[in-house]
Amino acid sequence: MLGAVLSGGAGCSATSGYRSGDGPATVVAFDVGTGRPVWTAELEAANGASTPAFGAGLVFIQTGRSYKSPAGRLVALDPRSGRQLWYVVTEGGVCGGADALGDPPVIADGVAVVPAPDGYIQGIGARDGSERWRTRLAGAPAAIADGVVLVGTQTAYTGLDLATGRQRWSRSVPEAAWSDWRPGGRAFVLGVGSTFVVELATADGFSVAALDAGSGRELWRDAVGSVDSTARRYVTAGVSTLAALQGGPMDSPHGQATRLVGRDLRSGKPLWTTEDLPPNQDGLPQTGIAADGGEVFYASATGRLVALDARSGAERWTASYGSGKDLFVPRLTVGEDAVVVRRGTQLSMFEAATGAQRWSTRLDSSDPETTAATGEGLVLVPRSSRPCMPPVVGGMGPG
To answer: Does the pTM of the predicted model rise above 0.85?
Structure first.
């Protein structure tokens, strides 16, 4: 196994909490096949960094300056060298929008969509950072499907044409599960094929609904109960299957029990359900999920990594990725024929087809709310000098 260590710069240790001082956020690239470090990019004027995204042959990262500031940047990097090619100024949400539960920038068909200063939404040419369009609209871009950008607030969704920024439709959604403690805080939203998947807040926990991308029409909705996790709760396998972490209702004595449920994406019909997923040592349902092609993957709190057939739920393989003794939610990334598990400071890569472990490395810091990204033969790991974390209920958030 490889034992590479990230070095230099301030960070948030998995055990020591926040370190003092400000410094640039960084992105470290590893070779997906060997785990060897390839390059490290320092992001100027940034303390917070989002999960990276690949598009138009480049790497994109949303950054923010501090927890209290809405100012940030969308930064484009050369995947071969990590060199910064261009950036545009963004403004929206905490840390310039980089604290959307670690969500990557919204990019498709050569266009990146960002919250711009003065209440605008901008479409940016992904290759050169030039402005394609802008429209004044409250909310934050959350997903793209079938040439439509979904922009959301706490009470409504709007569909914008990706090529022109023109409004295609608007839908009032009073129960949209968007955070009320930060402007434009995102709910869990996915865009795939011609469908958006959105999360709704209910008295008994949460529901999930599918919207037609072209019209905003609701196709179906169903309850998913209470799931006590800030990690990803929904993934799509291809354009046909939605997998969701589901729990019991909030008033249930078994409300912490969590299962992974597969559904037909267009109808909402359940296809399969796992057994109860094991909690961590504190009884919390810390499970990471991801999907690619015809498979769904989950990493349970006990250190077990499992691959399932997306349509039948049949188990294809299982592997072990760690001891399961820490409290971090495992973060899964799938791509490049690899399943990458990031848990705390441990980063491990498994073959997607067989579950065989190829390499593992330990990082010197970990951002709990960001996920590694795969593409262009690389595994990218973002690291913040002072991670943009939400306020603790009943306490103070980081300054």
So the answer is: yes
